Amino acid sequence: MEGGIVKVSSEGKRREEVVKFEFGDPETRKADFTKPVSRRFVRIESTKNAGDGKSLAITEVELW
Known about the structure:
- This protein has a three-stranded antiparallel sheet with strand order 2-1-3, with no helix packed on it.
- Helix content is 0%, strand content 34%.
- By secondary structure, the chain is mainly beta.
- It is globular and about 35 Å long.
């Protein structure tokens, strides 16, 4: 994944966009929130896939 949007929700229906991100260097990739967010549901939507764009891979996600 080269770009995306992180959205959060308390009940799983209405989602609030908290950060858009675009990655360049294939090393450690981070999308930092500008302020702390406390919600039950997190959605990561891809806006730009790497390579041929036919598949998507995320190896690790850390939320705290």
